[in-house]
Design brief:
Number of strands of chain B: 25
Number of domains of chain A: 1
Distance between the termini of chain A: 34 Å
Number of helices of chain B: 38
Number of strands of chain A: 18
Largest interface: A-B, 122 and 123 residues
Strand content of chain A: 15-25%
Largest sheet of chain B: 7 strands, antiparallel
Shape of chain B: globular
Radius of gyration of chain A: 24 Å
Oligomer: heterodimer
Structural class of chain A: alpha/beta
Shape of chain A: globular
Largest sheet of chain A: 9 strands, mixed
CATH superfamily of chain A: Alkaline Phosphatase, subunit A
CATH architecture of chain A: 3-Layer(aba) Sandwich
Chain lengths: 476, 1044
């Protein structure tokens, strides 16, 4: 039901607004003021409720997304992309032809090749190759699709992460999560549609712009949640305000707002009344959903989650709890993968922090029947150079080839798509650009990526700009 | 609103109402066969469905056909059939193709995935039948003053604005709303002009003022208020994408508040808008540019800066240039020009070449960082300089032979200068810690990009000089360094921890050995000084800077520093290093230099480096070479024949020479003491024109690595021309932007001002007035305002006065269900505006109502409370500083809140404040539960509630009823109704009882934070807590944060 419906039924706005408030119809977790000309979008032209569940272009395979963003750029050469030739050529210079026009961030591109630091083995029925650093992922390898031929345009972190998250290196465009919530709305009545977590050594490069709404209405930007303390900013009552006082205060606020609505007739007041009601409900629902102590021990153990100790594992479990409650898009940033040096030890450490939880998420979603229509995405902003940085324990940024994996939501399980060359330098078979990835993910979510648009400055903008192709080989 | 075909809802709001009220068929009838208007009805269809291939972009054009110009539609295209035969649809190829059943012939082609609806086809048909007129797009024609329309109700209009609005309402069969009541009006106009609610005293004064010009005097007061500039300045800062940090990964803090202050003051003194723009685009190029005019160019420098490790600085300079173009497009031109960065515009006649020609005007500037002094500091500086000058004049006076003595001294200085050979070593990438060293034509290296706080850069070079007796390191100024350098610290200083050299015979580099340096001389040798705490590396070592000997003492704790105090620290410096014995190799020498720069702090994601900014290495064979003690500036003057020197140059030489005269020790010491009093000042990012122009090329798809054709500065042909003979400079471009003949400059600005008052602009797409923009709701009013604005000398205050004295503005915002249904967005203006105020004003209202507001105008940004974890990893990329303001600064207006781009201040973000990543001329206005949580629970809002409660019990009378009225009026200006007062009293009494009986603990709620704001003695803690609860309710009302 549309918030402004009463207007068009020629009914008395005041009466309808009151009834409408009591029914808590329509408005989800954010609305746009009148005058925002939401219709300008040319899509799902509703004026009030920005999160009303909407139908995409075609029947979606995926209804929600969990994006495990491995910020800093994990080394594909130590994790997914086994390169015996690189091992053989360790210590030699790369062929000059390969480096034509190549720009590196830190190193002289003509630096010696560095052989992979870990052993690989085949796993599962699919026989996918994984490094010894990923024993847990190995157990679910038949449920995921590995893409070894990812490419991107950027080789610095902030532009790279912004590109992966918004489809362009220029700041100011809407993030993937905001496009999806704009396109599909949210199914949660009392939680934001797009939730963001952060763990690891640092925060994402570019910060908020990675989950910003760009020129889309601000209600679509990601909301940061936290695994400790208040899950959402300002969720708890201030010191000295007990539950009854909060309740009585809300009651008085609403009472006065209703009087004003009667006097003034502005439907926006009804929306405000609803926002306060929703806020009050969030105060109890958000802590509940964030309390992983409610999970049975075997689930905590599966993820390696520990209540009260914020971690990537906890965030994975929280992601599952949130999507179960209708949150459309959860993005977990884990910044830890920028191994210019200390490659061996850092990777061991990072995989200890993340491998089990990532695999657990796939397992857990599957056992609950959620994997079918939940997209899980794992990957960073680019890969790392086959050439060494420093002595023999580091790699520089590398955009020409890297690996991501996807699971659920209509992704073909148990496949490994694409190949990089024998040095892991260039994606040579079935290259998948970031734009292609976005097009494919939107396709699974029910959208023709060329038609999910928003008009801004006289132009219909889209996540994939003027690029992108759906990678059919990835579809189940 | 029911979903509509996008083009109908967007383009033609009049039709939109018809459709929502009735049905689509009616809309078609309403438009009628006579009323098809190309701009409003046809162009949007063509733009959306046809221009991709048949529009202004020649590169994409198919079939040699363009449909956006009169010539184009009469053309024959590749098929040979005339695209449009005016008056005859059935002979027009366009019409035949869009109605064709043939899959091959049909347009738009299937692969475009675009289709025309029957209604759209009908409109095109009607348009052709009408003769297919293509008028120029309204916004590309210089506005002329339109006739004021005749209205029936001649009593209502107070200004011509009202005639335009009323004429439209009468046409629609609507009447304006009655005038808003006096209290509503004064609150509305106070919020609009100053962003602050009126105090109850101001309301009372207005209510009791019976003179006919009472409202005028309120307006005078508000327009004269220093808060006017804060309110309207904040809106401009959105367009100027203002933020206090760099953005991208490091997102380091930057000093740009002087620009914010310039904006506020410029508006307060009503600097004409054309001048306002000229100074921001090219203030540095105005004759005798003042500090303020330099600061104004900060507008262009508000672009983000990427200094993460491993960046190519030129790539991100180009990104910043694109951002500047976008900002100019949105905020000044009112046109979308960003598209043309990659290709010619698909809809507007902006060619890619036009884009890069405008770009060329901006491309010749240094990314400078200039010193800024407050008026007090400027005064202090003049006093110091005068005092120094007087002392020097005294010396000359007492020593009439000074000129001869100085000439004698000068003779001695010119003898025996070593012969230095500049060398150009190559930097080893891996040794730079991620910093980039850009070689410049003079052989120097400019440090750019990421600034590691500790690194030891390695450089090698082969030299032929057979004997090397000394090495010279020159530290040079550069406009692209902080405060002109020569270092990269936030003061423009640098520190050299250690200077090391190795040498090997060029023909046998295996014989490389380190060279023992036994002596170092420099033209500056500051005393040993502990490091500023900004450079603390958490090692707890005693780290110092001092004389150049510190650069050869093999100690990591000591460094040669160049900082000899405020006012004199940003000068070129030099040091000479002498080896134990000369380096000599017959076949040349390979030299390896290591410059250790370890005197930065612990956090390389912050401004803690002290790296050298620009430097040059030289070698000599001259024996006993030492650093020239003369400052470089003095040495340059000495090269000028004595009779050609200006008095200022003579004074500069004198200023140095006197320091060498032993008998003048006393005066020299007095002057030294004066220099010590020089104010520190601060800095501001600004532009500074280069002497050497850069070549500008068109960039293929906007990629800086793919330069195409070189272009000269110029402007798009469809806009007004440049003045003939004007030099091709940024200043000319700035003047052109706000030329009286500009079709968009004034329209764009008045439209945004209108938007701020009424929630929606006369053109709702306020960032774009181009052909894809919405048709104006009141086109004549827009033009009238634009012309009036320009003719009143581009005075913004006059424009405001014009709008707020209109009957349109003064209408009540109460709305009936019928009117709301007829005109949900109030585009017809049959009522006054009513909407939630902007983010900053939400905070300011709470501060003002509570009495906590600190009204200080200007100054550096402040740090109101925010959760610390936001500024620490893993939420923030790196640790950020958020030194929570104590005392008064905590309660400054929200526009002074420090803005990190990557970690926006959450209170403001929740209310839709943009973060400065890009220029924003139209904010979203959302209504969310997170907003409710913010005003309910955020600590500073609670402080406001408590302060309002304290003020209420102290000043609000003795009865609860009086106090409720008092508190209510502080928030809402009006008095409460009986029902409203009763609801508040019920809450008060119930909570007092709970607190008194101990069912709830009042302590926390009543707890006073500052010592100066205590509760009156006769107010018990239960009462205090209950009043805080009531105040909190008031601050959370919809009406409190709404302009009614």
């Amino acid at each position: 039901m549309n918030c402004q419906d009463h207007i068009y039924r020629n009914a008395d706005a005041k009466l309808v607004a009151r009834r409408w408030f009591l029914q808590q119809c329509g408005v989800g977790v954010g609305s746009l003021a009148l005058g925002q000309l939401f219709a300008e979008a040319g899509y799902g032209a509703t004026a009030g409720d920005a999160f009303a569940a909407r139908s995409p272009h075609h029947t979606p395979k995926a209804k929600r997304v969990i994006f495990l963003f491995m910020a800093g750029a994990p080394s594909h050469l130590e994790l997914f992309d086994n390169k015996p030739t690189l091992a053989r050529l360790d210590g030699t210079l790369p062929p000059p032809d390969l480096l034509k026009g190549y720009r590196a961030a830190f190193i002289n591109p003509s630096s010696k090749l560095l052989g992979p630091k870990f052993k690989f083995a085949k796993h599962g029925d699919s026989g996918a190759e994984l490094s010894e650093l990923l024993p847990h992922l190995a157990k679910v390898v038949d449920d995921i699709a590995i893409v070894r031929s990812m490419t991107t345009d950027a080789f610095n972190h902030a532009p790279g992460q912004i590109l992966m998250n918004t489809g362009t290196q220029q700041f100011g465009r809407p993030s993937f999560g905001s496009w999806v919530t704009y396109g599909l709305g949210s199914e949660s009545k009392d939680l934001p549609g797009f939730v963001v977590f952060s763990s690891g050594k640092k925060g994402p490069s570019g910060g908020n712009s990675n989950w910003g709404s760009g020129f889309l209405p601000t209600v679509y930007q990601g909301v940061q949640f936290r695994g400790a303390g208040d899950p959402v900013l300002y969720l708890s009552n201030p010191p000295g305000v007990d539950q009854e006082l909060q309740h009585d205060s809300l009651e008085t606020i609403q009472q006065l707002n209703r009087m004003r609505l009667d006097a003034v007739g502005d439907p926006e007041i009804a929306t405000r009344i609803n926002s306060f009601e929703m806020a009050f409900r969030m105060q109890s629902s958000a802590p509940e959903v964030m309390d992983i102590g409610r999970e049975p021990k075997h689930i905590l153990d599966l993820y390696g989650a520990v209540p009260g100790k914020p971690s990537f594992a906890n965030n994975c479990l929280l992601a599952r709890r949130l999507i179960e409650r209708g949150v459309r898009f959860v993005e977990l940033f884990h910044e830890a993968w920028d191994q210019h040096g200390n490659l061996v030890n850092d990777l061991k450490h990072n995989c200890q922090d993340t491998d089990q939880a990532c695999a657990a998420l796939v397992t857990d979603l599957k056992q609950r029947g959620l994997l079918e229509d939940t997209l899980v995405i794992w990957g960073g902003e680019f890969g790392r150079t086959p050439m060494v940085q420093g002595g023999n324990d580091g790699r520089d940024h590398h955009p020409n080839a890297f690996t991501m994996w996807l699971a659920g939501g209509g992704i073909k399980p148990g496949i490994t798509l694409g190949e990089s060359d024998e040095l892991g330098f260039q994606a040579v078979k079935n290259p998948v650009h970031v734009h292609d990835l976005h097009a494919t993910l939107l396709h699974l979510l029910g959208f023709d990526h060329t038609r999910l648009t928003y008009r801004f400055q006289g132009r219909d903008f889209r996540l994939t700009d003027v690029f992108g192709r759906v990678v059919k080989e990835l579809l189940a | 609103m029911r979903p509509l075909p996008a083009h109908v809802g967007r383009r033609s709001w009049i039709l939109g109402f018809w459709i929502t009220a009735t049905a689509l068929t009616l809309a078609a009838q309403a438009a009628g066969p006579d009323t098809v208007d190309f701009s409003r009805d046809v162009r949007p269809i063509l733009a959306d469905k046809c221009f991709q291939c048949h529009g202004p972009d020649a590169a994409q054009r198919k079939g040699k056909l363009r449909l956006d110009t009169p010539d184009g539609v009469l053309g024959k295209g590749a098929t040979g059939s005339q695209a449009i035969v005016p008056g005859n649809p059935d002979e027009s190829e366009v019409f035949l193709r869009i109605t064709s059943d043939d899959a091959v012939d049909h347009m738009p082609p299937a692969k475009s995935k675009k289709t025309l609806s029957p209604a759209e086809i009908d409109k095109i048909k009607t348009w052709i039948a009408q003769g297919a007129p293509i008028p120029r797009h309204w916004a590309f024609v210089t506005p002329v003053r339109p006739q004021i329309p005749r209205v029936k109700n001649t009593n209502w209009p107070r200004t011509p604005i009202d005639d335009f609005v009323l004429a439209r309402l009468e046409k629609e069969g609507l009447a304006p709303s009655p005038a808003a009541d006096t209290v509503t009006l004064i609150r509305r106009v106070s919020l609009d002009l100053t962003g602050l609610p009126p105090t109850p005293a101001e309301v009372d004064a207005f209510l009791s003022d019976e003179k006919p010009d009472a409202y005028t005097r309120v307006l005078n007061r508000l327009l004269d208020s220093p808060h006017y500039g804060e309110r309207w300045g904040r809106l401009w800062l959105d367009a100027a994408r203002y933020a206090d940090s760099d953005g991208y990964e490091k997102d380091k803090s930057r000093q740009v508040w002087a620009y914010r202050e310039w904006v506020i003051h410029a508006l307060n003194r009503d600097l004409p808008y054309d001048q306002f723009i000229i100074e921001q685009l090219a203030g540095d190029m105005l004759p005798g540019a003042s500090q303020d005019q330099m600061v104004a160019t900060g507008f262009l420098r508000n672009s983000m800066i990427n200094e993460e490790g491993g960046v190519d600085p030129e790539q991100f300079r180009m990104e910043a240039m694109f951002d500047r173009m976008d900002a100019i497009g949105k905020s000044v031109l009112g046109l979308t020009i960003q598209c043309a960065q990659c290709h010619s515009h698909k809809y507007d006649p902006i060619l890619q070449e036009d884009y890069y020609r405008m770009f060329a005007f901006l491309n010749d500037a240094h990314e400078a960082n200039v010193a800024v002094y407050t008026p007090q500091e400027q005064q202090r500086r003049s006093e110091l300089f005068r005092a120094i000058q007087e002392l020097e004049t005294g010396l000359r006076h007492r020593n009439p032979d000074w000129a001869d003595r100085m000439a004698e001294w000068e003779q001695a200085q010119n003898a025996g200068q070593p012969n230095w050979v500049v060398i150009r070593p190559e930097v080893e990438e891996l040794s730079t810690g991620g910093q980039k060293y850009l070689p410049l034509p003079d052989g120097s290296l400019l440090a750019q990009g990421y600034a590691p706080t500790k690194h030891r850069v390695k450089m090698t070079v082969k030299v032929d000089l057979p004997v090397i007796t000394a090495f010279r390191l020159e530290l040079l100024n550069d406009p692209n360094l902080p405060l002109n350098g020569p270092g990269r610290s936030f003061k423009g200083t640098g520190a050299l921890t250690e200077f090391e050299v190795e040498a090997a015979p060029a023909d046998d580099v295996s014989k490389n050995s380190s060279i023992k340096i036994v002596k170092a001389t420099a033209d500056v040798n500051p005393p040993e000084t502990p490091l500023d705490p900004s450079f603390d590396d958490k090692s707890k070592r005693k780290r110092v800077t001092g004389p150049v000997a510190f650069a050869i003492d093999h100690k990591d704790e000591t460094a040669w520093g160049t900082d000899n105090g405020a006012g004199r620290r940003n000068q070129p410096r030099k040091a000479v290093f002498t080896p134990e014995k000369p380096v000599s190799n017959e076949g040349g020498t390979r030299l390896t230099f290591y410059l250790q720069q370890n005197h930065g702090g612990w956090n390389s994601d912050d401004n803690q480096s002290q790296n050298l900014g620009r430097f040059r290495l030289s070698i000599t064979s001259t024996p006993n070479a030492e650093a020239d003690p003369l400052p470089a500036g003095v040495r340059e003057i000495l090269a000028i024949p004595r009779d050609k020197r200006t008095p200022a140059q003579i004074a500069t030489v004198f200023g140095y020479w006197r320091t060498t005269v032993a008998e003048w020790k006393d005066v020299n010491e007095q002057i030294e003491a004066l220099w010590k009093q020089h104010p520190e000042g601060s800095s501001q990012l600004a532009l500074q024109e280069r002497t050497e122009p850069r070549a500008t090329h068109m960039l293929t798809r906007g990629d800086f690595l793919k330069p195409g054709k070189a272009v000269a500065p110029g402007v798009p042909g469809f806009l007004h021309p440049l003045p003939p003979g004007a030099p091709a400079t940024r200043l000319t471009f700035a003047r052109w932007l706000v030329d009286r003949n500009s079709p968009t400059a004034a329209r764009s600005l008045v439209n945004r001002v209108w938007q701020a008052y009424f929630g929606t602009g006369l053109v709702s797409t306020s960032e774009d007035l181009g052909t894809q923009s919405e048709t104006p709701s009141h086109p004549e009013l827009l033009d009238w305002l634009a012309v009036e604005f320009m003719e009143r000398g581009w005075s913004l205050k006059e424009l405001h006065r014009l709008i707020v004295t209109s009957a349109t503005y003064a209408q009540s915002s109460h709305v009936s269900a019928e009117l709301s249904a007829r005109d949900p967005y109030n585009r017809l203006l049959a009522r006054g505006p009513r909407f939630r105020v902007d983010a900053e004003v939400v905070r300011d209202i709470a501060l003002a109502a509570s009495g906590l507001l600190n009204p200080k105008v200007g100054g550096p940004s402040v740090f109101p409370p925010a959760p610390d974890f936001l500024f620490q990893p893993p939420v923030s990329y790196g640790p950020k500083i958020w030194p929570e303001s104590k005392g008064d600064d905590r309660y400054r207006r929200a526009l002074y809140t420090f803005r990190y781009r990557s970690v926006p201040y959450p209170v403001l973000q929740n209310f839709d404040a943009p973060n400065g990543d890009f220029s924003c001329v139209r904010r979203t206005r959302s209504n969310t539960p997170l907003q409710a949580l913010t005003t309910l629970n955020e600590p500073l809002f609670l402080e406001c509630a408590r302060a309002l409660a304290q003020k209420t019990v102290r000043e609000g009378g003795s009865t609860d009823a009086d106090r409720v009225v008092f508190a209510f009026r502080r928030c809402l200006a009006r008095k409460p109704s009986d029902a409203e007062a009763s609801a508040l009293l019920t809450l008060l009494h119930k909570q007092t009882e709970r607190f008194e009986q101990g069912t709830a603990k009042p302590g926390d709620l009543a707890a006073v934070q500052g010592s100066d704001a205590a509760w009156p003695k006769d107010v018990g803690v239960a009462q205090a807590a209950a009043w805080t609860a009531v105040s909190r309710v008031l601050l959370n009302l919809d009406e409190t944060i709404t302009k009614e």
